[in-house]
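Researcher: Quick one. two chains, 1191 residues in total.
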Amino acid sequence: MSDEYPSLLRSEQMSLVQLFVPTEVAHDTVHELGMLGDVQFKDLNPSVNPFQRSFVGEIRRIDEMARRVRFFTTQIEKETDVVPIRPLYECPPLITVGPRAAQTIDELSHQLTDYESKLVKLNESYQTLSERTRELTEARHVLKETAVFFNKAQGQSSNIRSSFDDSATPLLTSHDDREGGYSEGGNFDLEFVAGTIERSRVPTFERVLWRVLRGNLYMNHTDIAEPFVDPSTGAETRKNVFIIFAHGDVLLAKIRKVAESMGATIFPIDANVDKRADALHQVQDRLEDLQTVLYNTGLSRRSELVKIGENLTVWQDVVKKEKLIYETLNLFNYDVRRKTLIAEAWVPTRDLTKIQSALRHATEESGTSIPPILNELQTSKTPPTFHRTNKFTEGFQAIMDNYGIAAYQEINPGLFAITTFPFLFAVMFGDIGHGALIFFAALYMIIREKKMSKQDNGEIIGQFFYGRYIILLMGLFSMYTGFLYNDVFSKALHIFHSGWKLPEGSGVAENTGHVYPFGLDPGWHGASNELVFKNSYKMKMSIVIGVIHMTFALCLQIPNHLKFKRKSDLYTNFIPQIIFLESLFGYLVLCILYKWSVDWSKSSVPPPELLNMLIGMFLEPGKVDPKKQLYPGQGFVQLVLLSLAGVCVPWLLISKPYLAWREMHKTTQQGYMTLGNGDEPGRHSTDDDALEGEEEGNGRAIVEEAGEGHEEHEFGDVVIHQIIHTIEFCLGCISHTASYLRLWALSLAHAQLSEVLWDMTLKGSLSPKSAGDWIGLAIGGFMWFNCTVGILCLMEGLSAFLHALRLHWVEGNSKHFEGGGHAFTPLTFDTEGDL
Amino acid sequence: MEALFFNIDTGFLEAIVRGYKAGTLSQNQYANLAQCETLEDFRTQLSASDYGNFLANEPLPLSTSTIQDKATQTLVDQFNYLRSNSVQPLTKFLEYITYSYMIDNIILLITGTLHERDTHELLERCHPLGIFESMPALCVATTVEELYQSVLVETPLAPYFRECLSANDLDDLNIEIIRNTVYKAYLEDFYHFCTSLGQPTSDVMQRILAFEADRRTVNITINSFNTELSKEQRAKLFPTIGRLWPDGNNQLAKADDMEQVRAACESVSEYRSFFADSGGARGSGYDELAAASQLEDRFFRMEVFLNKQAFLQQFQYGVFFSYVKLKEQEIRNLTWIAECIAQDAKDRIQDYIPIF
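Model:
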């Protein structure tokens, strides 16, 4: 089997292998397998806590390194001038395998520690320096502002007093003014407190002070224009300068205490003008000195960061890989006596040789002579589902995987989605122009594939880029259906001669005798009965396509039943289902095709309504009004078909539970496990539970428990499941067929919308005569193009996409898809993600 | 009718808070945490829980207080998220939750100032949920009157303090009296507020608050044995709500020893078991301190139980209160376990109170 060419039809055959890895080569082996990305390791010690595992020490060390690298990243990000970070592919790789691996990691760890301590030291000194600078700046502001204030007070007081001795006196007057002549002319000195406080706290501060001092204060404050930036967090704080005048040591002490507890900084300011000027000078000088030192510290810090930036991506990469490696090693069973690690892993059977050679390569790399031993195990556990995709099939497979992971080795609907998906999309989106637009958009992305896959495209563009091949096919198919509908931006193409011509003066077209060879005759375009014709045509076409799609999906059951050796399911499930579907809706499709093939203009009876025919088939079985008869003997045929369908319902309902019941009785003494069809849905679900339990780390015990527990319920499960299945299928057939009418509805909506858009924007200004007309044409054309891309291609496209998705997930998959598998998640270093 | 319109304003937040609650640590996770050898193990273990990488960027070695601070910070962040998304009357309700923390902070600051501790150190120790902007100014005040006039008058707590303005000096006993008087006023106010919200919020919250009141009553009684607090004063501190009120409260006001406390609580069947074995043990020289701590433990267990029950009822605000309380208990548990690990006291590590 394994030499077969890999196909998407079924998921890859998997083997459970056991690896015996000597501890010396364990790291390199996992590294090599991680590079290969083809091995899914199982957790062999699920009962062990994360911190009790063998390699927790290493992981902790790596975590510490990761923390340092993160620290560097945040530091670099915070730097206002951009620090260049060298991309990974330009850096020399850091080799972490082979005999020198441990040393490399040690060195790296040391290096990181060094850088960290250096950076922390620089940060600290930068911090203290900027803290001092901030304080000095605040002091300067306080000095300046108080000076302004004092000067103002001086000016005011000069109106009142002719002379004064010191600068404090005028304040006294202003104070006295407010206090209503209290202790006028007294010779006590009014004291004050000055400082800075955060702006948001000013009102509270003022209020609290007012209450604490019972109003015995005079407070003044002004804003400092520029914000103070905290160098470590980059947060901005805005501050105010305040000056508070009060009387008495007790009050002043209180003010100071309140100010301090509210987070204000208080500066000793002298009341004397000269002293203040001196202080200002001093502060200025010191500030200048500090700023030079600060600048130099900033420079050396930056150069350090630049050095770090050169290697940052390599470190990130190495740290990420190492962490993944040790986490994987923690899944292994550690045999202390034999100094080997025992691992169990799922691998694709086809790749066994590749893995063998990878193991050998790892041994060579690490420079030891003991190779890891690979041993294939026999197992009854359900292997993971692995569909080998390439860049083309990846998107289509993802569409199906989003619905559910297929069961192991079941027919993969993703393969068929490659054609059915773009086709159903195109039926709804059929327009040569719009199809071409999205085709070329996809083509552009595919041509620039290499460049675009490297850069970060953002979420939305990234989504489109991921689905570029889907879009390409969707565009291509839309052009094809566009030709069939003869629709290009809502206009018709006249490639061949039309089969109709409209004689002058007459409202009725005449047949010219020849048939338009491909697609819709352009003669229909603009005809008064265009919509009637197109609706009838597209509606019927939707039903035909839908029934074909459902029949196909139903037939996909056959290979599944054969593969899983459930022959009885063919008779109990598949055959009644297909008879039911075909006798009702297959017959309808045949009638549609037959009705199309008859030239009703030459017939003696008017064309019968197919919808009424279908309703009549149920309501009056066996009777057909001869006037509405499609073909002779119709009543009898319909009666037979209806009774066939009627028989299928109990057949579907009873046969499978009956078989199960008979088997149960036949094999009571052998136990229930020998039901023969071991993969029945009922049984299957318990398997899934077990697997889930296993993934959650409950170990193997669960599998056996579940195995014992489910037998009593098996028969009941089969009955209930079959009842649900029967109801679902029979009702589903009807509703699903109706559901395909969305093909018609969406296609109609698309065509109408594009026609409306054309009429509203371009139609009127197509024959420009004056300059104004040309401008109108330009504006109209611009609007038309934008709306075409935005509304018709993007929005309508998305809507058609969603409907195509639904038709596949619900209408298609419900006919055969079993699902419930678990995806193959190999160890790989490629995954995106943070440390 | 509440059920009909509840979700318009509060559906989102209730969903959020129930989601938060789903993240509380389970018995299993506690068992794993208790097996940790070092605090780094502890961190690794916690990173698998809802706390996630909240400690990932902390440099080694870790300290218990860092763990506690960070865990509290997560709770505070969650609470602030809830508060900023809430509308009345939920906003008011959430504010009521913060009042108890504000009372604690005020008492902490006053006590700290009384013992001349550094203000900034005190401010750092305040619970972040109970911080209000004029709080730092508390340390200036020296009398209750001044305290009230300068700071508290503008806080929502002002009405609660009005009762205790008569106390003049700030000493340890008075502060304790103030705390209990204020808390009593707070509990009663909150109780009435919850009643005004109508069912089912009132049902759930009354149960929880009644228990809280009873717990305080019992605690005050036990703590006032052999102190200078007179019995009349003691009676004044008891909240006038709860299941012990009024009969039990009267008995408790007169109680002189544990035996009488037990007799007073006998009337409520749930509380009977709290005192089940303390009586017998006391005969063999069992010290009262251990009995009290055991009682405390049982109270905590009861509180957790009641708060868990709040989640059984939908369309009510009790879940918000209960979530904060449960999370607080969880942080206490984490701190306890971390402390035991740090001090290598493995034998007592199991003394946490499991939540789920």
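Confidence is low (pLDDT under 50) at residues 160-188, 674-710 of chain A.
Researcher: Thanks, that's what I needed.
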